[in-house]
Design goal:
Order of helices and strands of chain A: EEEEHHHHHHHHHHHE
Radius of gyration of chain A: 21 Å
Strand content of chain A: 5-15%
Largest sheet of chain A: 3 strands, antiparallel
Helix content of chain A: 40-55%
Oligomer: homotetramer
Number of strands of chain A: 5
Shape of chain A: globular
Chain lengths: ~260, ~260, ~260, ~260
Amino acid sequence: MSDLSWKTSITKIGPNEVRLRGYRVDELMGQISFSQGIYLALMGDLPDDNVSKMIDAILVSSIDHGASPPSALAARTAASTGASLNGAVAAGLLSINRFHGGAIYDCMSILANGIERTVSSGTDMDDIAIQIVGEFKAEKKRIAGLGHRIHSADPRTLKLFSLSGKLDIANAGVNMIRALQSAVAANGKALPINVDGAIAAVLIDLEIPQELANAFFFMARVPGLVAQVYEEQTRERPMRRIHPTDHTYDGPSDRST
Amino acid sequence: MSDLSWKTSITKIGPNEVRLRGYRVDELMGQISFSQGIYLALMGDLPDDNVSKMIDAILVSSIDHGASPPSALAARTAASTGASLNGAVAAGLLSINRFHGGAIYDCMSILANGIERTVSSGTDMDDIAIQIVGEFKAEKKRIAGLGHRIHSADPRTLKLFSLSGKLDIANAGVNMIRALQSAVAANGKALPINVDGAIAAVLIDLEIPQELANAFFFMARVPGLVAQVYEEQTRERPMRRIHPTDHTYDGPSDRST
Amino acid sequence: MSDLSWKTSITKIGPNEVRLRGYRVDELMGQISFSQGIYLALMGDLPDDNVSKMIDAILVSSIDHGASPPSALAARTAASTGASLNGAVAAGLLSINRFHGGAIYDCMSILANGIERTVSSGTDMDDIAIQIVGEFKAEKKRIAGLGHRIHSADPRTLKLFSLSGKLDIANAGVNMIRALQSAVAANGKALPINVDGAIAAVLIDLEIPQELANAFFFMARVPGLVAQVYEEQTRERPMRRIHPTDHTYDGPSDRST
Amino acid sequence: MSDLSWKTSITKIGPNEVRLRGYRVDELMGQISFSQGIYLALMGDLPDDNVSKMIDAILVSSIDHGASPPSALAARTAASTGASLNGAVAAGLLSINRFHGGAIYDCMSILANGIERTVSSGTDMDDIAIQIVGEFKAEKKRIAGLGHRIHSADPRTLKLFSLSGKLDIANAGVNMIRALQSAVAANGKALPINVDGAIAAVLIDLEIPQELANAFFFMARVPGLVAQVYEEQTRERPMRRIHPTDHTYDGPSDRST
């Protein structure tokens, strides 16, 4: 043991044994889903069935959002110069920040603050929502999680909320963002809850630390970036000029499970 | 439409509709697992149940391997200087290359070559394996996928093979690597099939393109890197000297599902 | 022209003509140094001779600081897994943040604040320095730019200050950090001005925007990272365990120009 | 000393002393230019005056090439999402690969091969060039370093060659690429030597290892990327759609030193 000795509580490695948060990985394999493994790695314990389903839904919702998001464009741009798959995905990952994916984090701040004020003041949540909306209006700031440049009713939001209800997960987080949406609407502005806001609300109800908000987005998006990069590598010529919006879809026709 | 117009076959975005490979994402949410979503994004179609279970097992096997792998150390080193979560994970991702995770790709080359020679020559697979082992020996090259510096019988390999048998996925890939292991053993050298070799064999049997080999490793490892970075951020002081091996585990005790 | 049309004021490209901030690049080549070109690219105009010499001195001071800084370790760790040269350097660059290199930015904040208070209050700079040191002490915060874990009198600081005096660049920035050092010493704590603090002071006197502080460090360090990665690639075996401090120097003997 | 002890020959750090390749860094500051420091870090010795001037000219030639190169677009795309300066520059750096900047490396291979064949065969260099051009034609491969999509006579090439002549650096590298250009022209195709080819030729004559070719490009371009990112951060709104070519220059008017 040197004077640089340190401790970790994630994984224990021994000869012929790998234990993640105490569980033998080979025992987990075949028993748990990848989402459950992710939850175990991050939160330290296995999720119950309802939480597992919710985590799956969150991650599935964010795998890909087409070729226009900056993370897809940066990854394709790097790929186009001959980057390795991981190098190109890293360029995409470096493009997931405050203004792309980051609304989850910012919205969690607002929701946590609203919930805290509701609890500590004993006031009705709807009144707190009206106060918050007023405060943001006074400071001319937008409420993260509300509004979308393409979708007026984001289908992913509707599904996340319907699932979080059915799975008994919906709680103060979902209630708070709905109260905020209503307060904004009462001001004459009907804004949809976007997928970032919906994920923020559900992550609050799942008691996921806010510091991991961005990770829930980018863990989901990394496979999407792999798909974008792989398509770039196999379908396009190197060093092409990549137009950010002038692309059309020519994949499988509309279908249903 | 400008002269830079291009096409993509991954995701179609329209107002209030996001379709991944033809399926409405909100329909997929709640119905499919994250692994199935990953498979759909990369391969273009939904996997059947057995393939889904196999993909889950592969991804679960590789979520984390403790604090010593270079990807964990690079991510922690970046985090220790105050990097953002995605910046630190990107530093880790940039450390997943030929010599860390890359054995999957190299092993897939060897297996594909062996299978092709078996089929085209009509020779027995075991004889082809003996030939290949001879060729590698003559060139003093190691066979990727065999041998491990810690594990003499990697428990993750055993489980991957037992699952791939039960799920009716095991095929030429698994047979070929076993033939190679036997041929090496016949030369007096008992080497375990490591987890990279096992994943390579199963990816061959799942008909995953070799170009995605590295991605199957890093998509699984990104959540592990998030856990490593988050632990570094919450448990350690900035700018510490990070010893690559002198760390001990102090997480949950051994437990079973 | 599309509706996405935008403007840039850095470089103009035409057939057989490349102009950086208005100057033909081929005219600049052979006439100006790389440092002058960097200054031109960032600041929009060519520096005079004294400023050029100062920029050279700042950049030379930060090229490398051995194998222990996190940026060198992260870059070597990535290289050790088989990363490309730019991939490994990117991993290093991602490790230059608040706690490594970032003291320049933080120190510039303190110095700018001190100078502003001195000017606006008409008080003596030394009195303002005493106030600031008191405020930091009350909040138990360290003053960025003072103190070093290895050097008690950083030779690079001494040289930067002697040059900035000779070249007529030293001004409020250098005076302010010296006043802070004196105020700390008067409190019974003799701390050296470290190289980050010295660079911060000189950048203030050069009127470099604070937002570029980190860049002045990492533009200088990128070549050092290239040297570290190239040494790792040519001298070490892949996937070695890289000890953060247990290394010794075996390069050229001490020598003088 | 642990069993992980290792050696480095770049920088020696002691209390109040930092030595780069044997020289005290504080002695170098004020005496050498940044380019000379870069050469010292990479090559182990200080360059003479002519080599220093040549290195300056190479680095100045590549600082920036406008907003269209993939490295600039990837860096701006990351910046547009709120990336830190170093994170955005890292995304740009990850976009400097085989097809962007990489022609220097590929061209050095061709030149080194041609020179070696000239020397070993005792044949005239022009004849070897004709052979090589024939071989590339037969394999339908392009000769890296010849041709440009914008410039028919790259002004940077002309200046690099005129300087390398004046500074007594031009040698087999420059001769070989000129011989190749002539051989291509004799085939009826007048292609300019592009700046990558010119740099490749001069790096050969400077005896810079081919493995550092990409670094000479990206060390020069990092400051350009800083300028691009800083302009994006200070001039554009977040999350804009970045058109790869539809931008116009509005910086300083044409001017001369």
